[in-house]
């Protein structure tokens, strides 16, 4: 069975969940001392990033930095012919997954990414529109910071789940929305 077909059998299409209320506030009512404004987040809160398209140049730059020069990513003919990826070059999964820490840090400056699990469900092709989304599933104050766990998902075309997993972060400021 070709690799592209095998990956396709691992995950059906799942529509993305609707975002739940999430807001920011300029209040510093958090018990954490910080000059940064506290952010409001509750379990179930969803953060959704802006749509992103990875170009061939993005993939080539990632290959140069990471050393991952697998021809599946850099040679469209190889990707189509050998592995059965009919649409050509596949974006590195870790490049797509880099949207998660970026999304969290854009809402919580100073966030520390502690752990991430990932499952790659479908390929992302050069030029596909990808949207990252994280949903808070656990929040707890710990040593003047907050431990926050999120489910992490990336979708193409607003419906096809391509990556999912779970992230654990330390947030410097937070107001718990109960």
TrEMBL record:
The protein, known as: Uncharacterized protein LOC109707652 isoform X2
Region (Disordered): 1-33
InterPro entries per UniProt: HotDog_dom_sf (IPR029069), MaoC-like_dom (IPR002539), UPF0336/Enoyl-CoA_hydratase (IPR050965)
Transmembrane segments: none
GO MF term list: (3R)-hydroxyacyl-[acyl-carrier-protein] dehydratase activity
Domain annotation MaoC-like: ranges: 50-145
Low complexity bias: start-end ranges: 21-33
Recorded GO CC terms: mitochondrion
GO biological process: fatty acid biosynthetic process
Gene3D superfamilies: Hotdog Thioesterase
